[in-house]
Write a structure and sequence with these properties.
single chain, 5 domains, 8-stranded parallel sheet, 12% helix, binds beta-D-galactopyranose, beta-galactosidase activity, Beta-gal/glucu_dom_sf
Length: 958
């Protein structure tokens, strides 16, 4: 082994994918011996390659001064260097294929015993993932160099291995390499050996690779099985009566139960030679594009999908497999049926779970060169995708993914990567893939004209585009017209939102060609940290001293970093629900099975009628089993007479346990109003005494309330501001609402008391409300009346001037004592709801503490709004407090800090409770939209400047 070679690192600046690697092949386990090399290794990080110890790979190198580091892991998450987040920009100069001299280089060493029995058996050293480039030595012998961070690498270790002895494995990992130019995904830059390392015995005459082709003919219900192997082997599927059948031959196996994402039936099989036996699971399914539609087993499928990055708040992309399993179960329970592995192949075991639990998977190649697009969005100057120097790397990456994952029934499409422009290297990848695997269509969103791919894919299109594509009125060009349409990304789940999910789903259900989409994205990539005083919070870009970063744009998931579902996930679950239950004009409900394959036979339909939110009667609705896509109309049950507003709620629930949910799990829900509210009038009649009216005492200087039945209050005053959501900020969206609001000063309104009129039985307060240096403002007139028990407010709000944008909210703010810590309400709940995100909410009576009302978004912002509130009671621990009701309905938030503090906060730890509770009682809010990346709030969910009227009744609790 020449030390000269060791000292030089030309490979760092070579687009080539490495040297010395074995050809790519399927990932599988067998009865051949294997040594798990995961564990605690010795580790040393150097700031540059030159400063790294030149001879660290030598067996007798002294590593006593080194640190321990777990493998798999990222070194930045174990105290060596810092993570960094960028979305599109490269954190180093665009100077391909060169990388900076300051290139953190991690040297790893571990030793292990190899059994004597391995003598004479070929051995393969396998790495499932190293970020970004590594050079490997075993017992002082160099095995090779590899890059392609989220892809496996194998090296022939036979000659270097010492069977029956101690072996020393040394790996040098560089944070940056030429490969980094094609790994510019929107995520943390994290380095190291972050997936498993194994030493595999490869018995002579064993099975090195195999390719299962298990097709299903939906017309006959029959399966055909062909297993390709390089050398002859025997395949057995006992359940199908197939025993020791030959590989490389078609076997007609008769009637089979097909695999699909809803009923993922798999057959247990073994593939064997005399030297090796491989246990496997086979799923029969056929993926085709037929008449412009993507079908599986002859049926059009609909993606109810999410984009999934591999992420864990403590471990980065080294996610423990039990966490992955729980995460996939969580998806199933929220009716998600599809995953795009954005933007690289996942850990291989994740795909086994997808086979087992049932997901449609788009497996995406580890290629993104987004930073090249920034300078010139049309041209992408110097883009590796169109540079012949990089062709080998592109093809290598595709090949390693396809070969590794080709035996998974869940993988139904290959994706060439993400946001890498378009170039000839894509053509080469596509061509190779089609030849290698004609059984799966190709996807790549960046191929806008569909030159090389089989599906027309788009990111964040507005509804109008989806509608036009659905009607074949867009994409007139020849190449796209005959292709199915999918949204590989839509509904940007950053912060509070996304709104408008129902509207997209309606189009997917209306137009066969629109085959669903994948919400961006599944998880917030927040890294767990602690504040100086020990409080836990999640960090994002900029929290680690990065000179260049994209802040909290990495916090854009449906679940928080610790996988707590957000309101957005609950909304998505309601929109993706496989059972829909809707009221008809007659006294009936329409129930539909929205599964593409599964029958609804192990389902019960529970109903309950609630009178002002309290159950009055319940039962079970008789519904026949429903075939996929079947619908029935069922008469409402006989219901008892009620005297207040009453709703019938019907819930479809599993009657038996499923692998992904327990019996009782809800598959869908619907509500029917069976008795409307009795119209209510505002209390009047009580005479004013000075500045007291009924239970209310006024502050004549401001025209607001000072006390309510002796309880100190402050307000109510007109408020139109909300702490902007990420979607209001509109970072990459079509509108920046929050900027317009700030420019108009909505966050700093001043109130001028114009008139306070004391009538016999009313107090009328007239104000003009506007911001400094603004002419535009609002007239707000508060008319107060009362009876003995309650005081009523009728607020009229009229714009004075132009407001050419929707208002965040319109209503009043009222501060009440902080001891009022519990809220019970009758309205939409239990979770938060906004105008365009209310599918998961139902009308009912709910109780939560003020603290439980908050959704702790990692980047603080407006949250916790409850819609369509008829009344709410704020109570202290003794049951004292007051009720706010309305003859109409209102929107309510309650929190222990002001909107101003919420606006200024950067992390959850910035939210410090006051000793009061701030209530916002609103006519309404503008909806949420998806404007952080994509379309802003839909027209019909925008709140105009008015005039508005808000009517409230404040009554102390007896
Ligand atoms: C897309 C990209 C994703 C992510 C998203 C915004 O353009 O493919 O990786 O950056 O935008 O969060």
């Amino acid at each position: 082994m020449g030390s000269l070679l060791i000292m030089t690192t030309p490979y760092l600046a070579q687009p080539d994918p490495g040297a010395g690697r074995l050809p790519a092949r399927a990932a599988f386990r067998s009865d051949a011996a294997a040594i798990d090399l995961n564990g605690t290794w010795r580790f040393h990080l150097s700031p540059t390659v030159a400063e790294a110890p030149a001879d660290f790979w030598q067996v007798d190198f002294d590593d006593t001064g080194w640190h321990d580091l777990p493998v798999p892991a990222h070194w930045q998450l174990h105290g060596h260097g810092e993570p960094a987040y960028t979305n599109v920009v490269y954190p180093f100069p665009i100077d391909p294929p060169h990388v900076p001299t300051e290139n953190p280089t991690g040297d790893y060493r571990t030793d292990f015993d190899a059994p004597a029995a391995w003598a004479g058996t070929p051995a393969v050293l396998r790495f499932e993932g190293i970020d970004s480039c590594a050079r490997v030595w075993l017992n002082g012998h160099e095995l090779g160099v590899t890059s392609g961070s989220r892809l496996p690498s194998e090296f022939d270790a036979t000659a270097a291995l010492i069977p029956g002895g101690r072996n020393l494995l040394a790996v040098r990992v560089h944070q940056w390499s030429a490969g980094s130019y094609v790994e510019d995904q929107d995520m943390w830059w994290l380095s190291g050996i972050f997936r498993d390392v194994t030493l595999l015995a490869r018995p002579a005459g064993g099975i090195d690779d195999y390719f299962v082709h298990a097709d299903y003919d939906h017309l006959t219900g029959r399966g055909t099985l062909r297993v390709e192997t390089a050398a002859p082997a025997r395949i057995s599927v006992p359940e199908l009566g197939l025993l020791d059948a030959a590989t490389n031959t078609d076997h007609a196996v008769g009637q089979v139960r097909p695999w699909n994402a809803e009923t993922p039936y798999r057959y247990q099989a073994t593939l064997a030679t005399d030297a090796e036996t491989v246990p496997l699971w086979i799923g029969f399914r056929t993926v085709r594009i037929t008449d412009g539609l993507l079908t599986v087993n002859g049926r059009r499928i609909l993606f109810r999908g999410v984009n999934r990055h591999e992420f864990h708040p403590d471990h980065g992309r080294a996610v423990p497999m039990d966490v992955v399993r729980d995460e996939l179960l969580l998806m199933k329970r929220h009716h998600i049926n599809a995953i795009r592995t954005s933007h690289y192949p996942p850990h291989p075991a994740m795909l086994e779970l997808c086979d087992e639990l049932g997901f449609w998977v788009i497996d995406e190649c580890d290629i993104e060169t987004h930073g090249f697009g920034l300078e010139d969005w049309q041209g992408w100057p110097g883009n590796p995708s169109d540079d012949p120097q990089w062709q080998g790397a592109y093809l290598d990456r595709m090949r390693r993914m396809v070969e590794r994952d080709k035996n998974h029934p869940s993988v139904i499409m290959w994706s060439l990567g993400n946001e890498a422009g378009i170039g000839d290297n894509h053509r080469v990848m596509a061509q190779w893939t089609r030849e290698r695997d004609p059984g799966r269509p190709l996807h790549y969103e960046g191929d806008h004209e569909c030159r090389y791919v089989d599906v027309y894919s788009a990111m964040y299109p507005p509804l109008a585009t989806v509608d036009a594509v659905g009607r074949y009125e867009q994409a007139a060009d020849e190449l796209r017209r005959d292709k199915p349409f999918i949204l590989c990304e839509y509904a940007h789940a950053m912060g509070n939102g996304p709104g408008g999910l129902r509207d997209y789903q309606d189009l997917f259900e209306r137009y066969p060609r629109c085959q669903g989409g994948f919400v961006w994205e599944w998880i917030d990539h927040g890294l767990r940290r602690r504040s100086a005083d020990g409080q836990e919070y999640f960090g994002y870009g900029g929290d680690f001293g990065e000179p260049l970063h994209d802040g909290h744009f990495v916090i854009d998931g449906l679940v928080s970093p610790d996988r707590t579902p957000s309101p957005g996930l609950r909304e998505l679950a309601a929109v993706y629900a496989p059972v829909t239950i809707a009221a008809t004009d007659a006294d009936s409900v329409r129930i539909r099975n929205r599964y593409d394959f599964a029958a609804l036979d192990q389902v019960t339909y529970h109903w309950v009628i609630e009178e002002e939110g309290l159950p009055a009667a319940e039962g079970t609705l008789p519904v026949p089993p429903l075939a996929p896509d079947e619908e029935v109309e069922v008469a409402l049950p006989r219901l008892p007479a009620t005297s207040a507003e009453s709703w019938l709620t019907i819930s479809a629930r599993l009657t038996v346990d499923q692998p992904w949910a327990a019996a009782g799990h809800e598959l869908g829900q619907g509500q029917v109003m069976v008795r409307p509210a009795t119209p209510r009038r505002l209390p009047t009649g009580t005479k004013r005494r000075g500045d007291t009216l009924g239970p209310a005492e006024f502050d004549p200087a401001r025209g607001t309330l000072r006390a309510l039945a002796g309880m100190a209050v402050d307000g109510p005053r007109l408020d139109v501001w909300r702490a902007p959501t990420d979607n209001d900020e509109g970072y990459y969206g079509d509108r920046k609402l929050a900027q317009a609001w700030r420019d108009a000063g909505l966050d700093r309104l001043q109130h001028r008391l114009v008139d306070l009129r004391r009538d016999d039985d009313a107090i009328v307060v007239t104000t003009r409300v506007a911001a400094a240096q603004q002419r535009n403002g609002f007239w707000a007139t508060y008319r107060w009346t009362a009876d003995q028990q309650a005081v009523a407010l009728e607020l009229s709000v009229t714009p004075d001037g132009e407001f050419p944008f929707p208002l965040p909210r319109v209503g009043v703010r009222l501060a009440v004592p902080g001891t009022l810590s519990t809220v019970e309400w009758f309205g939409l709940g239990p979770g938060e709801a906004y105008a365009d995100s209310r599918q998961a909410a139902r009308v009912g009576r709910f109780t939560r503490t003020v603290d439980e009302w908050q959704t702790p978004y990692i980047f603080p912002q407006e949250n916790g709004g409850r819609m369509s509130v008829r009344w709410a009671e704020l109570r202290d621990e003794h049951g004292g407090g007051f009720r706010v009701s309305s003859p109409d309905t209102y929107q309510l938030t309650a929190r222990r800090w002001t909107s101003e503090l919420l606006t200024a906060a950067q992390h959850t730890t910035d939210l410090v409770a006051d000793d009061v509770v701030y209530l916002n009682l609103d006519v309404g809010h503008t909806g949420l939209g998806s404007g952080s990346c994509g379309p802003s709030v839909g027209e019909r969910y925008r709140l105009g400047p008015g005039p508005h009227r808000l009517r409230l009744i404040l009554a102390p609790l007896p």
